Amino acid sequence: MDAKDLLRIIDDGENAELECKAAKGGLPKDVWETYSAFANTNGGIILLGVEQKGQEFFPVDVDAKKLVKDFWDGINNPQRISKNILVDRNVEIIEVDGKEIVRIYVPRASREDKPIYIGHNPFTGTYRRNYEGDYKCTKEEVQRMIADQSPIPQDSKVLPNYGLNDLNMESVRSYRNRFSSLKPDHPWNGLELKEFLYKIGALGRLRETNEEGLTLAGLLMFGEERSITEYLPQYFLEYREKSSDVPGERWTDRIISSDGTWSGNLYDFYFKVIRRLTDDLNIPFQMEGLFRKDDTRVHAALREALVNTLAHADYYGQRGIVVEKEKMLFRFSNPGVLRIPLQQALKGGISDPRNPTIFKMFMLIGLGERAGSGIENIHLAWKEQHWTAPELIEEFQPDRTILTLRTTSLLPQESVDFLKAVLGKHYKFLTNDEVLILVTAHQENYVTNTRLQSLTDKKSDEISKLLSGLVEKGYLEPNGQGRGTKYTLTEMFHQKSIGNSRYNRISSGPNVNNSGPNAANSGPNENEQTKDHEKVLLDISELARKKKRLNPSEMDEIILNLCAIKPLTLKELSQLLNRQMDPLRKKYISRLLKEGKLEPLYPEQINHPKQAYMTRSLFTNQH
Asked: Where is this region: Disordered (predicted)?
């Protein structure tokens, strides 16, 4: 990395993958918290010798060589940190404006090395990272990391107190029929039931005691829901379907594992759900010779996505498996984060399923591809249809992996028309790449550098320049900083969206309170309305900006008055109040949320990248 690249990172400021520390008095003690947090999350960069003043960051004078020495001494000391996962090239000194900055790149730790923790006790010294900074992991989070260290898969565990009485025999018979139809000459077809279950991994034996029992895979795949939840109380399967994109409309179809009308196991859930996912796919059929082939690559991709969700889930985790189908998207969400780095998962070729026995059971009946090819096949299917590229993300607190498949064109006419309506004659000056970026931001509510790398053949630095250019033009607004920055369409796009239901794709964003009879009229009125709001917000928050110390009740009143004008993000509040985000969140926002005086804009996803806060009265009026 050169000084130019580093300056761009500094200009972007802190985010979930970047931490700046002044380090004027030597190596900061909390550097180890950040090292632990980055290693246990998605990696990141620590900059030593960078000071924050308000919302800006500046290089400062430090003894860089001593900082590097002290850092290596500390990280190689097992009394201080559990493990050093860095190599020499991860730590370097870079000169910027005549000052030396220490750059430390912390990679994501392998599952065998997690958790990386401070001191001797992982339950008190393990940290992770979110958009608000480092946080200490709960006991449950640490336990899940320790469980993932094991080379023995969780689903191969033998449960000696569980046997054939815990299985749904209709599920087992159905599975055997599918197996024999697919492989009529297979020697396992002639086996007795117990022997067949043993061969496929559903039944096992403890070698130490010779006790026989179901494996966890067998219980999950074929068990009765009551038996499964006796062993796994958090177990829950859910399918939701909504046939239109009308805001507020309830689910038109829903399946849950606990309703008592079916077995509630993975095998039956798969077949109940896959039919619903694929029964109305509007995909042209293909021909094989003179015969029509109804099964397409998209059908195979949805099967792959569903099998992967069931095979990669952490069934000891929270909130269960949720599969959603809406008019223009499919979403697959399971407890547990990926066991390999996200970028590696997206590239394909390497797989580390949490439940390989479950994966094997599906493969034996022709479902699921070879290890590591799933995401690659899904990408190919979506690319073939010229649809928006699949999005795979991880969330923490609780741990979840979410795959979203949108069936929207890369350049849907609806979004192109929207941009033309807002930008007018300025639209023709956009390049093809700029149009793609703005369309993606309109379709998906925000866009990131990483997301655009999956949509284009451009490198990260090329995309950064494009994004910066659109920010300068006033078309995109950055939220967060550094590599994790999310770019949303600016106020003028929100105004147009709110005023015209045809474009009401982003109307749930932070400006939902700005609708009105003139909201659809582009031109000077939009800018005037935006300026009016800005002036009101600045007037309300003026006292907080001028006084460093305010009575908590005074600050509460200012925050509530601000959020009554429109929903505001933590970053926006920080700038208006001239307070740092972390103390503001801990001292005021969290408390006001608990007291019911503030309401999150996205209550079902607290860590939503566009999370904003509004007063309770505002929320009530809108809903």
From this structure: 505-532
